[in-house]
Amino acid sequence: MEGKKYIVVLGAGESGVGAALLAQKQGYEVFVSDMGPIADKYRTELEEAGISFEQESHTEAKILSATEVVKSPGIPEKAPIIKKLTEKNIPILSEIEFAGRYTNAKMICITGSNGKSTTTMLTYHILKDAGLNVGLGGNIGKSFAKQVAFEQYDYYVLEISSFMLDNMYKFKADISVLLNITPDHLDRYDYKMSNYADSKFRIIQNQTEKDVFIYCTDDAEIQSGIEKRGISSKVYPFTIEKVLSEGAWLDGKQITINTNHKNQEPLIMSITELALQGKHNIYNSMASGIVAKVLELRNESIRDSMGSFNNIEHRLEHVAKISGIDFINDSKATNVNSTWYALESMPAQVVLILGGVDKGNDYGMLKDLVKSKVKGIVCLGKDNKRIHEAFEDDVEVIVNTFSASEAVQIAYHMAKKGDTVLLSPACASFDLFKNYEDRGNQFKKAVMEL
Questions:
Q1: Does residue 113 have a known ligand-binding role?
Q2: Which of 10, 24, 304, 329 could disulfide-link 317, Cβ–Cβ 3.0 to 4.6 Å?
Q3: pLDDT score for 188
Q4: Distance CA 203, CA 3 (A)
Q5: Which fold, 100-308?
Q6: What is the CATH number of domain 6-93?
Q7: C-alpha–C-alpha distance, residues 415 and 426, integer Å
């Protein structure tokens, strides 16, 4: 390893393998280490590239001699190997931080507790439709690092989680978007909301007056965070509560997006024309629309794209209508706030499928919506005690189930023609499923077998 920088990549999923391939291309000596088994697809990529790796163990001598370490966002700071790296002052980076060194593309970075996948996909859709040479990455799609290694894009739209932000230092977003800050993953932030909010605000670090910050001014946590910080970038707020002179706002049934940029005409559009319906999606559409206006895309192009977008899988995805009952897959709702948004966009008479690994959830914010819209709750998880305690006075029936097919069968029998069965679990999926995609796919399969 004489003369070569030695980099260790912890975690061999999409982001880790992408980082390893980019590091190799940039002339690093690379070693990949994963405490779990490495999926066949990723193992093959590493083998074909001739990158040395290990699985189901961490060889400390190899890891602790690294010049720097690229860490998977899923590995917590409290993991023993991370503590040892920190003690030795070995720099620990996210894939985004590492890959950002090797591209001059414009970075559009989107974060928030909820809606970031939808907003990232919608923004990418608008830019791609307008003919821009754009890549999609971060917490979604293909590894950003791998794209930097092998593809040449002028723009990247990146979904950025708080875990990624925690290990980003010199990276800068040209356009940053902060959608909302609501309690999520507090177990990773010492159960302190302020720590989690600080993490989200790292999306604006290193921005200058030449950069843009787009944010929801209706969100109390964001507003409070802005008041505490000096923000250098050009700001564009969005709101559904008041009329602004600049940014995006809702007036009646009409959204206006105005950046006052180079004599551009504002974009004015009825919310009925938006492909994404529901209050939360007005926010998501506004954020994406401001990005498009900042990039000087034509109003006609933005309007067409915002009207033609298909939402992502597992996010309020309509599965089927059976015996007059609508089945909706919102498996991506892994926190209470996501479930609140889902319920808020539903008509009354919902059979709600809830449960999984509870991340310290406060179900209180759901109580009013559950009382007004939910006729029964089907629990899908190993430990449903807290759901029973939260809602036993609000609904007539709460039933425990331990598989997607059992949950769907029971929900189907509880529902009547005109009702909606909504899978929106408010919890992580790891007690009964591999991940939220597996949970959503098993739900869809069970629905189609009714």
A1: yes
A2: 329
A3: 60
A4: 35
A5: UDP-N-acetylmuramoyl-L-alanine:D-glutamate ligase (3.40.1190)
A6: 3.40.50.720
A7: 21
Rg (CA), the chain: 23
The residue ranges of DSSP E strands in 274-416, in sequence order, are 317-322, 325-329, 350-354, 374-380, 397-401
Dist CA 332 CA 340 (whole Å): 13
* Ranges of each domain in the chain: 6-93, 100-308, 317-448
Q: Does 116 appear as a known binding residue?
A: yes
Q: How many residues does the chain have?
A: 450
> d(Cα 152, Cα 206) in Å, to the nearest integer?
24
Q: Residue 399 corresponds to which tokens in the numbers above?
A: 């039933």
Rounded to an integer, what distance in angstroms lies between the CA atom of residue 120 and that of residue 284?
A: 9
Q: Are 156 and 144 in contact (CB under 8 A)?
A: yes
For the entire predicted model, the pTM comes to 0.75
What's residue 260's pLDDT? 87
- 75 φ/ψ angles, rounded to the nearest 5 degrees: -85, 120
Compute the Cα dihedral for 237, 238, 239, 242 and give only its sign: positive
**How many CB atoms within 10 Å of residue 244?**
15
Q: Which two tokens stand for residue 51?
A: 């990158």
Sequence-distant (≥ 6) Cβ neighbours of residue 153 within 8 angstroms = 103, 105, 133, 134, 135, 147
Q: What is the mean pLDDT of each run of 10 residues along the chain (450 residues)?
A: 79 94 97 93 96 95 96 88 95 96 97 88 96 94 94 96 88 96 65 77 94 96 91 96 96 95 88 84 95 96 92 83 94 88 86 89 90 96 92 94 97 96 93 93 96
Q: What is the CATH number of domain 317-448?
A: 3.90.190.20
- Element spanning 340, H or E: helix 336-344
74 is in an annotated binding site: no
Contact 401, 407 (CB under 8 A): yes
Pick the closest to residue 231 from 248, 260, 249, 206 (CA basis).
206
Whether 6-93 and 100-308 share one fold: the answer is: no
